[in-house]
Amino acid sequence: MTLGVIILAHTALNRTAEIAQYWSDYGCKVAIHIDAKVGPVEFGKLQASVGHLPGIHFTPRINCVWGTWSLVQATITAAELLLAQEPDVTRVLLTSGTCVPIRPARYLIAHLEEYGQADFIESVTTADVSWAVAGLEAERFTLYFPFSWKKRRKLFDWAVDVQRKLGVSRRVPAGLVPHLGSQWWCLTRRTLEAIFSDPERDRRARYFKQVWIPDESYFQTLARKHSHKIESRSLTFAKFDAQGRPHTFYDDHLHLLSHSGYFLARKIWPKADRIYRHFLTKRSLTASELSTSPSNVDQVLTKAAGRRQTGRRGLYMQSRFPLAGQVRSKCAEPYLVLEGLHTLFPTFDGWFAKATGARVHGHLFAPDRVRFHGDVPVYAGCLSDIAALRDYNPEAFLSNLVWNTRGEPQAFHFGPKDQQRITSFIASDASARVTVITGAWALQLHHLALPFAEKRKQAAILQRTEAEHLNILRSPSANVKLLTMTLETALRDPRRALVAVLEHQGLRPGVERSGLPSLTSTKGLAEFLQDLKNDGLRLHLVGNVRDIPDDTPEITRSDYRKTGT
Amino acid sequence: MSAFSKYSRLYRLHLLRRRLQLRALRKGRELHRVTDHTKAIKPRDVLLLTTLRNERLRLPYFLDYYRRLGVGHFLIIDNGSDDGSKDYLAAQPDVSLWSTWHSYAYSRAGMDWINAIARRYGVGHWLLYSDVDEFLIYPFCDTRPLPALIDWLDEAGIQSIAAMLLDMYPKGEIAKRPYTAGQNPFEIAAWFDSGNYTISRNAKFGNLWIQGGPRARVFFADEPQNAPALNKIPLVKWRRNFVFASSSHMLLPSQLNKTYDSRGGEQICGCLLHAKFVEPILAKTAEETLRGEHYAGGREYQRYAAGFSKIEDLWSPRSEKYLNWKQLEGLGLISRGNWA
Fold it and tell me: Which residues of A are less than 8 Å from B224 in CB distance?
C-alpha cells in the first residue's frame, strides 16, 4: 500500500518542509498546496528545500479563505494530482500545515492496511451534530452565505436572520443526504475516483460552493454516497474550544498527545520545537503510549472552557469581577454568621467548632479591630486585623477570607455593635448562613455594670441597629439562608435552640451528643427588660418579656440533655 | 438620559485621548535617539517599552529575563542616568535607545514619551510595557513563550490582557543582603501576599482598580484609599489611535480596559512580579524623595522613607513563598481563561 498525503499550508513553511520530508522518508507521496497569499520568496525556499525529494509535488496555488469552497477546491486539485501522477497511491490522507504525525507513520500504514478498503472520514447527519459554531447545522445546506463570517460577522448574522424570516430554503441536490464531520480524512483511491468521475460532479460543486464551510461537508456527504465502507472517525486529533476555534497544542501537551491514541494531531503551534523534534524523530511506540487515554485531553479542554464561562465561584480578581446581580453565591463556600449565640452560651465557640469542624472567629467586624480566631494580627492570605483596611472594602475582606480558607468552613460572630455595612453583601449572598437570636444584646446589656439610663440609651440604639440589619436580611431580594429566634424562645428551650442552629448549618441532628455549652445566668433579666419597657422603650425583638424564665438554674452550667427532651 | 450620559462619557474620553495623543507628539520631541536598531524589528515581534533612570544594576537580569520570555526588541527611554545604564544599553543589539533630560513628572511619569514611541514603532505589534523591576508571569510561561501567547490572543480576538502588580518582599536577615547584578531578585524577595486585594470598578474608564498587598497592609494601613494602584494592562496589540492614559493602569480607547469578565467567567491574565523591596532600595528611595518626580509628588516614596525601618516587617507568618505560575493560578491571582 502506498499512502498519498495532501498538505494544505499557509504559514510556517519551514515546518511544512519538515513534515513533507518526514512523509517522503516513509515512502509516501506528497502533494503540497501553499496558499496563494504566501510570498514568492518563502515559497521558493520551500521548493528548494524539498522539491527535489522523490514523490513530492506542488499543486497550483489558489487563494484560500476559511469557510469557503476554495479549501475544497485546493483539496480536489491536490487529490487529483496525486491519483494521476502516482499510480501506486491507494489512499489519500488530508492534512494541514499544522498537522503533526504523533505516531510513527508505519503504525498509521499498518492501521490502514488492517482496515482493508475502509474510508476514514468522520461523517455525521446534521441532526446529530452539536459541535458546529453558531448553531448552524442544517442551515449550512439550505441558506446562502454571501458574507465572510470572520471579517463581516454582523452582515453574516444579518443575512442569516433575513433568510430565516423570508423562509429561504435551498434544495439539496437529489440523492444527497447532508453529512458533516472533521475535514481531516483518509479516503481510498476507489472512493475518490468515484467522487471525481461522477457525472453529477459539476452540478454538486455548484451547490456546495454556496454551502457554509464546505470542507466539513463536501467529502463527508459524497463519501456516504460512494464509499463501500465508512469508518466514521478521524485519524487526526483535533479539538475545538467553546467558541469553535481549533485548539492549539504546545510543548507542554507532549505527554497528552502521545497518549491520545490518534495518528496525527492538529493544530500544533509552529514554534513548538519539542513537539516537532519528538514526533518527527520517533520511530516506535512504548507500551504506555499504546495504551491510550484521550479523555485526559477532554478534561483539560472542558476545564478551560468552564473556567472561561463560569470561573471559580467566590473569586474576585483582575480578570473575574462579576458585577452586582450576576452571581447568587458571592463567596467560594458556605460560611456561618452567628449572632447573639455567645452571649447566651459563653463557651459556645469551642463547642461549635467541635460539633461542626468550623473555624470560629470572634467579631470580624468589631469597630476597633478584626477579631480573627486566636486574635492574630495577620490571618490567611495576609488579611490584616486593622479595622481601617477592612472597612475600606468590607465585602472584599469577607470574600477574601472565605476564598483564602477554602476547605475549612468559616464562622464568625456578628452583632449590632459591629460595623453594619457588610449586611447587604451577606443578605445578597447565597453562600451565607446566618443565625440570629434577636434581642440577645439585651442580655449582654443586662450584665454590664452601667447606670440604667445609659443602658436604656444603648438598648434603643442596639434595637434600632438590629432591626435595620434584620430588615435587610429579610428583604425579598435576599439570597441568604436565615434562621432567627427571639431571645425569649432561646432561653425557654436552649437545647432546642442549639439543635436548630446545628440543623441550619446542614448538620445531622444528634451531633449535640458531644455535650452542650453552658448557659449564662439570666437572673434579673426579665425584670430589667420590664424596666426598659416601663421607661417607654418598645422591645420588639426580644420576644415576650413575661415568658422569659427568671433564671434557669435547673438547666444551666453543665449538661441539660435530661431536661431538654 | 442614560444613552445621553453614555455618549457624553465616550465623547469626553475621545477628547482626552486626542489630547494625550497631541501631548505625546509634543513630548516626543524631547527624546534624543542614541541607538536605533528598529530596522531589525520583525512583523510578529513583541516589543518591550520602558523608561528608566539609573538601573545599571538591574538591567542585565531584566534584559535576560525578557529575552528568554521571547521579547523581540526593546524600546527604551533613558531619563538622565549617570550610572552607566546608557552605555550598557547602547551596546545591546536588540535595544533601541532614546535619552532625555527633561522632567519625568512633566511627561506624566514618562507616559507621553512611551506613547510617542509606541505610536512610531509599535503599531501592529504586541507591546509590553514593564518597568525594570517588573517581571511578567502568565499561565504556561515556563513552556510557552510570549510569541505563543500573542498568537493565541490574536486568534481569540483579544486586544489586551491584565497583569496586576504583585509586590514581592524578603524575609528576615536576607532583607539586608544587597542585590548583585545579574541575580534573580526573587531569590531575595521571594514572598508575597496572596489574598488581601480589594477591587473596585472605575466607571469612567471601565477598568478595575486594585489595591492591597504588603504596601497597603504595612505602609498605608491608616489610609488604605491612598495605597498604590496594582492593576496594570501591560500587554496590548497596539493601534495608531491607542494611548496609555495613566501608566499602564488604564488605556484609551476604554474598551482596552475590559480585561475582565463581569458575568462570572475568567479571562486570561498574568502578574507582574514586582522586585521593589530589594536592596539597594534605601538609596533609591532617598534620591526619589528629593527629586519629587513621582506620582503625587513622590508621596509613596516619602512614606517609604518615613517607614523604612519597617522593611523587615513586610514579611508575616501568613506570607506565601513564590514557586511558579501554577501556584499563582491556584491562589486565584492569575487565570488561564480558556487557554488550555
Answer: 388-389, 392-393
Q: Work out the angle at residue A271's Cα, subtended by the Cα atoms of residues A268 and A277, and round it to the nearest 5 degrees.
A: 80
| Interface contact flag, B332 A252, Cβ < 8 Å | no
pLDDT tens sequence across B296-340? 545 666 666 665 556 778 899 999 999 999 999 999 999 999 998
Task: Say if residue A540 is exposed, middle or buried (CB neighbours under 10 Å; 0-12, 13-18, 19+).
Answer: exposed
Structural domain count, chain B:
1
Q: Are A90 and A14 spatial neighbours (Cβ–Cβ below 8 Å)? A: no
* Domain limits for position B151: 3-330
DSSP assignment of A109-122 equals: HHHHHHTTT-EE--
Residue in chain A lying closest to B147 (CA): A271
- Rounded distance between C-alpha atoms, residue B168 and residue B61, angstroms: 16
Q: What is the pLDDT of residues A183-207, one digit of tens each?
A: 899 999 999 999 999 999 999 999 9
Residue B233, helix vs strand vs coil: coil
Put simply, whether A11 touches B (Cβ < 8 Å) is no
pLDDT in tens, A219-234: 999 999 999 999 998 8
**Do residue A342 and residue A202 come from a single domain?**
no
Q: What does the pLDDT read at residue A559?
A: 45
Q: Identify the helix (H) or strand (E) that includes residue B75.
A: strand B71-78
The region that residue A261 occupies, defined by phi over 0 for left and psi between -120 and 50 for alpha, beta otherwise, is left
Q: For A270-314, what is each residue's pLDDT tens digit?
A: 999 999 999 999 888 887 777 766 667 778 888 888 898 899 999
Q: Which chain A residues are Cβ-neighbours of B208 within 8 angstroms?
A: 318, 321
Residue A419 domain-assigned?
Answer: yes
Nearest chain B CA: its distance from A429 CA (Å) = 14
Helix ranges (DSSP H) in A431-523: 440-447, 452-473, 487-492, 494-504
Q: Which residues of B touch A397 (CB under 8 A)?
A: 198
CA dihedral sign, ordered A231, A237, A242, A245 = negative
Q: How many angstroms from the chain centroid is the CA of residue A326?
A: 16
Give SS3 for B51: strand
- Structure confidence at residue A553 (pLDDT): 43
Which CATH number covers residue A226?
3.90.550
Residue A248 lies in a domain: no
Say yes or no for a CB contact (<8 Å) between B193 and A252: no
Q: Domain range holding A156?
A: 2-238
Between CA B11 and CA B302 the distance in angstroms is: 37
Nearest-by-CA chain B residue for A328: B264
Among B199, B200, B332, the residue with its CB nearest the CB of A403 is B332
Cβ–Cβ contact A237 with B under 8 A: no
Domain boundary among A207, A238, A269: A238
Q: Which residues of chain A neighbour B317 with C-beta distances below 8 Å? A: 378
Residue B75 lies in a domain: yes
- Which pLDDT band holds residue A554 (cuts at 50, 70, 90)? very low
Residue B111 lies in a domain: yes
Q: Give pLDDT tens digits for A366-399.
A: 999 999 999 999 999 999 999 999 999 999 999 9
Portion 326-365 of A in contact with B at CB < 8 A: 326-327
Name which of A66-70, A117-121, A318-322, A477-481 the model is least confident about.
Answer: A66-70
Whole-angstrom distance, CA of residue A92 vs CA of residue A31: 10
Under 8 Å between Cβ of B169 and B189: yes
- Determine contact: A317 vs chain B, CB below 8 A: yes
Chosen for mutation from A10, A300, A318, A321 (greatest number of chain B CBs closer than 10 Å) is A318
How many Cβ contacts (< 8 angstroms) between chains A and B?
179
| Any B CB within 8 A of A324 CB | no
Residues paired with residue B129 on neighbouring β-strands, in sequence order? B49
Mean pLDDT of A136-148: 83
